[in-house]
């Protein structure tokens, strides 16, 4: 049984607690400055111990650390783990600025610390299958891609105005919180970002938040033109990813939150060939990621986002947001 310390017992922290406990391979302790919240977790989950100050915890008691605090706290906590040689998984985005990122990368490299960033989709079977199909070359050389995600965020997170999402200095807004997932996938499927432009705004949420609820980013990734679209106010839940290649188009589509399909078409007749159907993955997102993290800890093959990749993601977002609105 591996010992895991989860730092941050908010909404995402709870999902990680559930995911890691469900593997049956971890004993979980938690750390949160909110003692009331921590005690609620203790009542609901079989946690080993509860702490309130991360910097006074003896990290040597644990085999790994999961950092699920707001994004502006990620880098200092990750640096502490890296300096002490403790493997860690840090929530996305890596940070809200590039300050401290290079220092973190140097320490990880020096101490050879297993580490990754929690972009969950890299651990999900349907997205892994999409990667395998892309790498098979069925589309031929990819030239353009579209990443489209939209939903009514207020339905799924009714506390949206009270959590990190509403605050600029905590890494909120649809670009860092949602589109960063899509940029991570583009980076994984296509290659590193090179240049881009972003238009973003608060179109529907009003004064309850100080961040944006909608954005469009156009960029170039490994010489491919890629477009990202997101709004968090529309009623239908939609996910569409499409790659236009020289031999055909590959499409990933979620009809709802519970069914996703991978389709391929290499003609103009409009009859897409079904290459995979995936049902009800959403309930196991954090279980899949926890198992992927086990692979990292044990030195086995994994698909997790590296700190270097997450840093590229963050740098791209900061650059394109500075150029638009």
What can you see in these coordinates?
- The protein is α/β, with parallel strands linked by helices and 325 residues long.
- It has two domains: 2-120, 3-Layer(aba) Sandwich (Rossmann fold); 121-281 and 307-322, Dihydrodipicolinate Reductase, domain 2 (2-Layer Sandwich).
- Helix content is 32%, strand content 27%.
- The chain has nine helices and 14 strands.
- The chain has an eight-stranded mixed beta sheet, with helices on one face. A six-stranded parallel beta sheet has the order 3-2-1-4-5-6, with helices on both faces.
- Strand 9 (214-221) and strand 10 (224-231) form a beta hairpin.
- The N and C termini lie far apart (49 Å).
């Amino acid at each position: 049984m591996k010992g895991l310390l989860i730092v941050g017992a908010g909404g995402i922290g709870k999902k990680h607690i559930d995911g890691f406990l469900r593997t049956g391979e971890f004993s979980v302790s938690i750390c949160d400055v909110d003692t009331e919240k921590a005690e609620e977790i203790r009542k609901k989950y079989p946690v080993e111990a509860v702490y309130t100050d991360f910097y006074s915890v003896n990290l040597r008691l644990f085999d790994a650390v999961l950092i699920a605090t707001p994004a502006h706290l990620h880098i200092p906590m990750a640096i502490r783990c890296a300096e002490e040689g403790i493997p860690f998984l840090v929530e996305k985005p890596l940070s809200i600025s590039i300050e401290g990122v290079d220092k973190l990368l140097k320490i990880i490299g020096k101490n050879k610390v297993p580490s990754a960033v929690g972009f969950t989709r890299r651990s999900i079977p349907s997205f892994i299958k999409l990667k395998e199909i892309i790498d098979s070359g069925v589309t031929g050389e990819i030239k353009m891609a579209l990443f489209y995600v939209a939903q009514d965020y207020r339905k799924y997170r009714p506390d949206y105005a009270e959590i990190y999402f509403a605050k600029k200095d905590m890494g909120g807004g649809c670009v860092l919180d949602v589109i960063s997932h899509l940029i991570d996938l583009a980076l994984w499927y296509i290659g590193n970002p090179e240049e881009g432009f972003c238009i973003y705004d608060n179109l529907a949420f009003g004064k309850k938040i100080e961040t944006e609820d909608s954005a469009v980013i156009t960029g170039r990734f490994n010489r491919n033109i890629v477009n990202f679209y997101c709004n968090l106010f529309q009623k239908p839940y939609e996910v569409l990813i499409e790659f236009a290649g020289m031999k055909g188009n590959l499409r990933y589509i979620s009809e709802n939150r519970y069914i996703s399909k991978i389709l391929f078409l290499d003609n103009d007749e409009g009859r897409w060939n079904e290459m995979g159907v995936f049902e009800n993955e959403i309930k196991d997102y954090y279980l899949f990621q926890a198992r992927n993290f086990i692979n990292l800890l044990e030195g086995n093959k994994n698909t997790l986002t590296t700190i270097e990749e997450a840093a590229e993601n963050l740098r791209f977002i900061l650059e394109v947001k500075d150029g638009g609105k």
